[in-house]
Model the fold of this input.
Amino acid sequence: MSTGADSPAAATDFDVIIVGGGPVGLLLACLLKQQGMRLRVLERRAEPLAYSAAIGITPPSLQILDKLGIAAEFIARGVKVRDCLVHGQSGPLGCVSFREIPDVHRFILSLPQVITVAILQKHLGQEFLEAGCEVSGVRQFADHCRVQAGERTLTARFVVGCDGSRSRVREGIGMRAPGHVYGCHFVMGDFIDRSNFGEEAHLFFTATGAVESFPLPGGQRRWVVQVEAPLEPPRPGLISELIKQRTGLDIAATDQLSESPFTPRRHQCDRYYEGRIILCGDAAHGMSPIGGQGMNTGFADAEFLAAILSQGDPLALLPAYDRFRRKAAQAAIAHAEWGMWFGTWRGRAKSMLRDVLLKYLLCRGRISRYVSSFYAMLTIPFNTLERVPLASLPLRRLRAEGGLL
Done:
C-alpha cells in the first residue's frame, strides 16, 4: 500500500470504503448509511468467527447504538450485568454495582461479539458488505483513494482501516504503532453455566492468580483464569482445575464449549490518519482485554468519525478526530492497564494488601460509586460526541450547522 502523486479530480465509486467488517467497521458503516453516504465494507473473512472475544457493551456504547434505533435489540439479546461481586484471598470484599451509575443504562450488557456482528450486519444490509474480499493495496491522491480488492480497483473519497491490531491499512501508510506486551497471561473459556450465579459477574483475586466469571446469554458463562506462562494450546481441563484450586467451585470440564489463550498487549498509533486514509478501532489503538474497554473505545471512534465524514470538508476536521480520540484511547489504555496490574498481583503478602485496598474502595459510598462509573467507562473523556468540548473553530462551525453535537 502506498500514497501516490496527485491525479486529476475524478468521480468515485463510493464516499467511504471501510476495510474490515468487525463490530467497529460495521457500526461506522451503519452510522454513515444513516447519513445517506455511498459506502462499502470489505471484509477479508468469508465466514464469521466462531468464537467471541469481546462480550461487554458499556452504557456509552449503548447510547451510540440508540442513535441507530437498535440498542433495544442488543439489550433484548444480551444479559444485563448490574452487579459484580469481588472476592479476595480473605473472602468476599464487596460489590461493584452499576445500579446507581449516572446513566440511563445502569448495567453492562454481556453479549457475544458474534451476535453484535450479526445485528449490525442485519441493520446495515448485505448490499453494503463484501465478505471474503482481500484488500491488497490502497493508494491516495489529492481528491480520492484507490483500493485494490482482488482483481478490481475501487475508488472512494476516503478509506477507513477498521482491520484490527495487525492492520494492513496501517502498515500500508507506514504509520507507527508503538506498543508493549504485558508480562501476564490468561486462558478464557465459555461453559454451560451451572454456577447459580445468575446475571452476576464474579471476580476472584487470589495469591496464585485471578479468576473472572461473566454471564453470557443462552445459559452460558465465560471464565477467565490467569496462568503462569503462554499456553498454546492449554491442556484439557486446565480452566476447571484452576477454578477449583482458587475458588473451591466445581466447574465441570465436560461443560466447556470453547477456549482461547491470550497475552495482553497495548499499542497506540502516532496519528490516526494520513491524508484521506483513516484508522479506527483496533487499527488505531489496542489495550488489554481485561476490563472490556477495547471494542467500546472503537465504537466511540466510529461515532466521532461518522459525524466528520458526513460533513462537507472532512479533511479540516480530521485533526480534531485525531486529538480527541487519541486522548480517549490513552485513558482507556491506562484504565485497562491499571485494572489488570492490580488484579494480577500474586503471592500472599500482595494479595492481603490488595484485599485491604479493595475492601476500602468498595465499602466507601462515594469512592464505590466512582469505581462503578470507572468500569462502566463513564470516566473516559469524550466517550460520546456529547462530551466533546467545542475546542476548535471547525467544531464550533459544526455545532452551528447542527452536524456534530
In short: The domain at 185-263 is CATH 3.30.70.2450 (Alpha-Beta Plaits). The chain has two domains: 14-81+112-179+266-353+366-401, 185-263.
